[in-house]
Amino acid sequence: MSGGVYGGDEVGAIIFDIGHQSLRVGYGGEDSPKAEVPTSLGVWEDAADQQQDNQTNKKRFNIDTTAIQVRKKDMEIVSLMKDGMIEDWDMFEKLAEYTYKNRLHAVAEHHPILMTECPWNTRFKREKLLELMFEKFNVPAMYICKNAVLAAYANGRSTAMVVDSGATHTSAVPVHDGYVITQGIVKSPLGGDFITMQCKQFLEDKDIDLTPAYLVASKDVVREQDPPRWTRRPGPEPTTSWLNHMVRELLQDFQTNTLQISDGPYDEDIANSLPMKRYEFPTGYNDDFGSARLMIPEALFDPSNVKGVGASILGVGPLVTTSVGMCDMDIRPSLYGSVVVTGGNSCLAGFSDRLNRDLVSKTPPSMRLKIICANSSSERRYGAWIGGSILSSLGSFQQMWLSRQEYEESGKLILDRCS
């Protein structure tokens, strides 16, 4: 591998797309990730080690969906991410080790790695990531790329306005010729977690029991809106963070199956005229949900009616127009002509239609508006990963890899080559 240039299709690059909710990972050139691993880990301290060493307790980790769902007495659920960036490096190292060994069955030394990052990632965290992958995992080469750029590539664009609505925030990121225009990034703290919180508030106000499935041993079939009849599964009392995590999973399932975004600003009469959707909770309680299905996610587009949300927080439509307005006049037409929608929340029914309607009224008449939204929900969720998969398998990209040899010669300075 002279000079870190790799030979076309034989590269076998691994793509790591890390988000607040999960890590998407798989091989470059494939259509979808091989695995999706939660970035929240179960953490507990092992007292048995303490007796042997007479020292501090040793931290143990439960990784991946099934292991997290095991109820342990002192296990806390901790996220390794904060504001879209890696916060806990020990946990990230454990997660990467697990992913290589148990999900990819791959040896890190044999595959170059393409990592995604949020557009506001700090230089320090990028350097730390570079150091970890080269020093600890001995990868032969790596590259770090902004997830907004990759989402644009996944939709066949090198210039685009990328609207990414994920777990912790919604952002509008302008991309021009494969580079993020940093001064044009606009963020809102309203994302999937905020919608989950709104769902929880609504269901608690209706006195609906949100016991997760893992605590239900058995349940009886009951009529609509009748009190549930169920028995609790015996076992150790879980920690508050574990219980909150499981309730959040239940609420996310409720979101996916029932919520819908209205075509225009929320109107109760129109919402009541739409079909209702039935949802059954793990305890057996079931009900039909009507206008609330549209009222809850409305906050993403019009936060002004939500209690506790400041007037300064923008909805998705104003995020885009504000971001475009902060960019150079010359590229505004091409940004409006390629508004790429990606992220988990974009899978909500009606998301792109509502964004289109909100933007049509705000777009200058001289500019053509085009919303680009992948048909399948998995393509929207995995937009950045798919872009990374395409990029890593291009012959013209192979000279871009930062090789181990270059890292050993120049150290962290080679990061300047990553856009």
General description of the model:
It comes from Neodiprion lecontei (Redheaded pine sawfly). Belongs to the actin family. InterPro entries: Actin, ATPase_NBD. This is Actin-like protein 6B. By secondary structure, the chain is α+β, with helices and mostly antiparallel strands. Among the domains are: 1-39 and 81-149 and 384-419, ATPase, nucleotide binding domain (Nucleotidyltransferase, domain 5), CATH 3.30.420.40; 41-79, no CATH class; 193-290, Alpha-Beta Complex (Actin, Chain A, domain 4), CATH 3.90.640. The protein contains 16 helices and 21 strands. The strands form six sheets. Strands 3-2-1-9-10-21 form a six-stranded mixed beta sheet, sandwiched between helices. A hairpin with a 7-residue loop joins strand 2 (22-27) and strand 3. Helix 5 (147-154) crosses helix 15, helix 6 crosses helix 7 (240-258) and helix 11 crosses helix 13 (351-360). Mean pLDDT is 92; it is low at 1-9.
Describe the SSE topology.
Blueprint (H helix, E strand, L loop, with lengths): L13 E5 L3 E6 L7 E4 L1 E7 H7 L4 E5 L2 H4 L7 E4 L1 E2 L2 E2 L2 H16 L8 E5 L5 H14 L4 E6 H8 L5 E6 L4 E7 L2 E2 L5 E3 L3 H14 L10 E4 L10 E3 L7 H19 L9 H6 L3 E4 L5 E4 L2 H4 L2 H4 L14 H10 L6 H5 L2 E4 L8 H10 L10 E2 L4 H5 L1 H10 L9 E2 H7 L9
